[in-house]
Design brief:
This protein is α+β, with helices and mostly antiparallel strands and 131 residues long. It is built from four helices and six strands.
């Protein structure tokens, strides 16, 4: 009986380590490793035309028209309207948010560790950027 418990503990430990290693992989969508500073540098590079020219920036933050003629507020990686472009993301234990005011240039970036899937904080977070 004792050996069986040791095997279960070792198996659980291995499963946990495998899951952590899987979640730690850099694999694009769902697991990009970054920092607020890096995201802010990326924001500044886009804003200053170091990454995209004005024409491409307009496309990046433009609402799209779907094949059936309806408008989509999700375009090239951003949910957008005339004033705000934003994107959220999550992975077990994390929530992220980047919001840009396209008129004023203000940006808000949040990388958050969480235990539960609760997005109630976004409204308060967005207030100062949406002004």
């Amino acid at each position: 009986m004792e050996n069986e418990n040791v095997l279960k503990a070792e198996s659980s430990k291995k499963d946990y380590i495998d899951r952590v290693n899987y979640l730690s992989a850099v694999q694009g969508d769902g697991s990009v490793v970054t920092s607020i500073n890096d995201l802010f540098l990326w924001h500044k590079a886009i804003s200053s035309n170091k990454v995209l020219n004005d024409t491409l920036k307009q496309l990046l933050f433009k609402q799209t028209i779907l094949n059936d003629g309806s408008k989509s507020y999700y375009g090239y990686g951003w949910y957008t309207d005339e004033k705000i472009a934003d994107h959220t993301g999550s992975w077990p234990g994390y929530q992220t948010r980047i919001i840009r005011n396209l008129k004023t240039g203000l940006v808000g970036i949040s990388l958050k560790n969480v235990e539960i899937n609760n997005w109630n904080w976004i409204g308060e977070f967005d207030k100062s950027i949406k002004k």
